[in-house]
Amino acid sequence: MLAIGIMSGTSLDGVDACLVDIKKGKKSKFNIVHFTYVPYDKELKNKILNISLNKPCTIQMVCSLNVEISKAYVKAVKKLLRDTKVNAKEIDFIAMHGQTVWHNPDGKDNYESSTLQLGDPSVLAAAFNVKVISNFRTMDMACGGGGAPLVPFANYVLYSSKKENIALQNIGGISNVTYLKKCGELKDIIAFDTGPGNILIDAAMRRLFRKDYDDCGKIAKKGHVIDEVLQELMTDPYLYQKAPKSTGREKYSDAYLSEIILKIRGLGGTDYDIITTLAAYTADCIIFSYQKFLPSIDRVIVSGGGVYNEFIMERLSQRLPCIVEKEKNYEALEALSFALLGYYTLQGVPTNVPKVTGASRPCILGNITNPIIRGEI
């Protein structure tokens, strides 16, 4: 069967879409046929960013954005189908994560623990007349979990090994790790958000260099780490908090970044030093998390946009006592993971890992939106 997985992360770059060939069986196999990426246009990206930063907006704006994001997904799926010359009628289902605009798993500020991913699955179901699975996080939260991370189940299916202890490190807007024990079972998985990924670096690049990101870590390589600030950042209580835990833009906000910039400038640091220190912070949060919470590791497999940042990758390679490598399909991994989760949703299989999310029990994730039904009632 053929499926499409769609992911758009906290970095707000755009839409990842992955065509997946699924071989059903006792041990189902998931093979990437083709991956495509369609960037958000500038206006849409700014709208999402403003809402994600909790800036004043109207419910009309949120309502409209829910559809605008869906149309960006439709555009990405159309490109994927064109590139592969696959007809929409051949697609069995689409699984979409949606665009996270707010994630509050800890009930902070006296608000209910909650999460919101925008993107209306009905728009895709109507556009391609195909079943769509979406809204994966809310059932886990309804069962007392944090709604994240969700990819550990997919990581277990795709990467579990009888020979090595593997850490799968995704560096997107936020960084998260899944630890798979050699010969381990689902109950042995350790997974959590390690802290910031590209989120602070990208925001600082927009503010200081008028660029969306640090291309290949070139800016980070030109500066120096301001150790006094980095050491203070590494005292963040989140880093010492035991799993289950997850975080997001709500913590690593513009205000959070502004404080860091002021401190670095107050010590005579340059704009380059700001980017370098933030990149070091991302890497060191990962390294610290491994040292504090994970057993021995034989191999670290890195995915997400952070693999492009040579400064971060070099720091990880230099400071971790194990093999550090890029996942060969590092761009497509999260989109593939949600196609996999969507498949198991349709099979009625629970795909949250309660030990990881904090949920009270295993549960089937995702809402199913049916395709258009042709014919008379």
Describe the structure.
With 377 residues, the chain is an alpha/beta fold. It folds into 2 domains: 2-147 and 338-369, 2-Layer Sandwich (Nucleotidyltransferase, domain 5); 152-326, Nucleotidyltransferase, domain 5. It contains 14 helices and 12 strands. The radius of gyration is 20 Å and the shape is globular. The model has no long low-confidence stretch (mean pLDDT 95).
What descriptors fit this protein?
12 strands; alpha/beta; 377 residues; seven-stranded mixed β-sheet; Nucleotidyltransferase, domain 5; 22% strand; globular; 14 helices; five-stranded mixed β-sheet
H/E series, N to C? EEEHHEEHEHHEEEHHHHHHEHEHHE
CATH level-1 class of the largest domain = Alpha Beta
Global structural class: alpha/beta
* Total individual domains: 2
**Number of strand segments:** 12
Instruction: Choose one word for the global shape.
Output: globular
- What fraction of residues sit in β-strands? 15-25%
Q: What's the gyration radius in Å? A: 20 Å
Q: Tell me what the CATH architecture of the largest domain is.
A: 2-Layer Sandwich
Helix content range of the residues, please?
25-40%
How many H/I helices? 14
CATH domain fold name of the largest domain: Nucleotidyltransferase, domain 5
Largest beta-sheet characterization? 7 strands, mixed
Please report the distance between the alpha carbons of the first and last residues: 29 Å
